[in-house]
Structures are given as structure tokens and as C-alpha cells.
TrEMBL record:
Keywords: Oxidoreductase
Enoyl reductase (ER) domain sequence ranges: 22-340
Cell inner membrane found in the keyword field: no
PANTHER family named among the record's database cross-references: PROSTAGLANDIN REDUCTASE, PROSTAGLANDIN REDUCTASE 1
One function term, GO molecular function aspect: oxidoreductase activity, acting on the CH-CH group of donors, NAD or NADP as acceptor
Domain of life: Eukaryota
Protein name: Enoyl reductase (ER) domain-containing protein
Xref: SMART domains: PKS_ER (SM00829)
Organism field: Adiantum capillus-veneris (Maidenhair fern)
Amino acid sequence: KKEVVMVSRPQGMPVEANFEVRRSELVFQVPPPPGFLLVKVLWLSVDPYLREIMNEDNGLTVIPPFQIGQPVFAGSISKVLASSDPKFKEGNIVQTISPVADYALISSEFFSIDKIEHTHAINVPLNQYLGVLGFPGLTAWVGLNVITQLQANEEVFISAAAGAVGLLAGQLAKLKGCRVVGSAGTDEKVRVLKEVYHFDEAFNYKTEKDLNLTLKRYFPSGFDVYFENVGGNTLEAALENIRRKGRIIACGMISQYNKEYKEREGVRNLMHVIGKSLKMEGFMVGDYWHMRDDFIKEVGELLQQGKISYHMDILGRGIDEFTKAFVGLLGGKNIGKAVLLTDDG
Ligand code: NDP
């Protein structure tokens, strides 16, 4: 068995030395102890929030920080090798949170453990249950439908638009008849947003001098909804340009995750929330797990009808490449969902 353990807390961008791949001749008990499944991990989800919970003080208060010397956990797609829970049997494919490992013992009672049974009907690859049909997809869907209740013809700005959440959010907003502009960190991502995903406009935030002026250029009379994925100066520019009574879906603030809590950027114009009578609402997608069937039904149908599509980026192969994949994600290497393929998939 191999598993990734955090041996020191990253300072800034994570480095190889922060993690160790521990190998052990672990002999698993078969059948597993009551309430557990023995699984072979097939795919691991590489997610921004993992960086946040590597910080001792972090904003995700409901998720305890990773502890030094303990394995790193991530979303996974796994195959059941042995089960002591009658709800699961050998050969089942499950989506859950597991250690970043090739084999694992996981609780069959975890809140978001689920047998994947829709693949055939929806006809998407298994790993998309970590992407467009997984937590990132649910995040985009909840953000637009539940948090902000997006209406037809509204104008929407989405940051980190070429990522797993942003791509689906943009497509769902377009299907509602909205005008959608996205920001991303490379010219290639901008091209993909416009040409493949039919965003009305997109721009590279890294080559713009003043994001406030950039947003004025794309939204001369402001916008109604901001899907916030990055925080920092993008949030400041969005606050300047959002319309009165606008809504902000506070989904993520990735530009801050590599900074210690006390070094994080403040938002100097937060006062606009008052002056413009804005509504800014945050959420944790785990609280909406109960809506997953509705989400899978709706987004599954859209996928089947060819009305939405998805990208996936394999940023690493094998547990040993976890750090490479994770740094790749934080550095913006991915278009769509970033995943790690474990040894033999
Ligand atoms: P992505 O697939 O979007 O990957 C992260 C992307 O963020 C990178 O590709 C990079 O793209 C961009 N990025 C990295 N650093 C910066 C920076 N300093 N400034 C601006 N952009 C940056 O990840 P997800 O789609 O999984 O997540 C998107 C956001 O949603 C994250 O903030 C995440 O924490 C949040 N989230 C929140 C959830 C919730 O429950 N509230 C659930 C899931 C995700 P680029 O090239 O554009 O820089």
C-alpha cells in the first residue's frame, strides 16, 4: 500500500518536501471491520480546498485542517474489493472521500459515499463523477440555482472560468439565456472559453493592467451576478462593477489559499455591499449533498442531449505524482477538472 502523508505545512506554494509517499506491507482484514469497505482507488480528485485545509488556520471552519504526519484525503472513485456492509458489494464502484492512496479502508457510512450506477445511462467516463457530475458540478449548479437563483437574461461574471466549477457554471448560465463573461489565466483558456464553451467574452486576468477597467470594458453598465472563485483584487474589481442589488455567489477564493491567514489581502471596497445593497452568500457544497439526485438528473440529461460538455485534465499518474498534480492545479495548468490517475486506473 502507498499513501501520501503531509510531513510539513506548506508555506506558499506546496513543494515535494511537504509530502511523503509512505509504503507499507499493510495486510487488510477481509472481510473489513463492520461499517468499512476495502477499496482500490482508481481516480483522485485534485481540488483547491485541499490547499486551504493544509493551513492550520483556515477559512473552511467545518473541515478540520490536515495534521502533520497524517494522510492527505481527497475525493475519489474507487472499486470495492471487500465489503462488510450489505449495501455495497465486491465490484461496486463508489464515489467518496478517501486517503490519497492506492488501497484504502473507508467508512461505508460517510455522508457523501455513493455507488455510481448512472454511468451507463448518462454515458460519461467514470472520472466525471469527480467533475461535471461530482462535487464541482454540484457546486456550480447549487451556486446558480439555489444561492443566487439566476434569472434569464441576467449578466454574469465568472472568475476561474476555465476550471471545473467555472466551466459548468458558464454553460448553465448560457442555457438560461444570460450574457456570460469569464476570466482565466492563459490565452489558451480564453480561447477555449469562447470557442468551445461559447462564453460571450473571456479575458486573461494575468495580462490585464487594471481589472476594474477590464470589467468596465466588458460590462459598460455593470453585471447582475458574480460567481466568485478567486477573491483578492478580482473581488475588488467585481465589487466596483457589479450593479446595485447585484448578487455574489461566494464559492471560493483561491488567490488567497497559498497565503497565511494573517497575510491575506483585505477587500478595500467591501462597503459596496452596503452602498449597492448587494447580496453576497457563501456556501459549502457538502451541505447540498441531498440535492445530488436532482442535480444528476438535470445535468445528466443536458450531457446526454449534447447541451453541455466538459474537460478533464490528468495532472498526474500514480500516487507519487500527487504533489506535481496539486501544484499543477494551483498554478493553473488544468482546463476543467484536474484529476490524478492512480497506478493502473
Ligand atoms: P479549478 O478547476 O478552477 O482550478 C483552480 C484554478 O484556479 C486554476 O486552474 C487557476 O486557473 C485558478 N487560480 C489559481 N491561482 C489563482 C489566483 N491567484 N488568481 C486567480 N485564479 C487562480 O478549481 P475548481 O473548479 O475545483 O474550484 C474553483 C473554486 O471553487 C475554488 O476557489 C474552490 O475552492 C471553490 N470551490 C468551492 C466549493 C464550495 O463548496 N464552496 C466546492 C468546490 C470548489 P487560472 O489559469 O485561471 O489562474
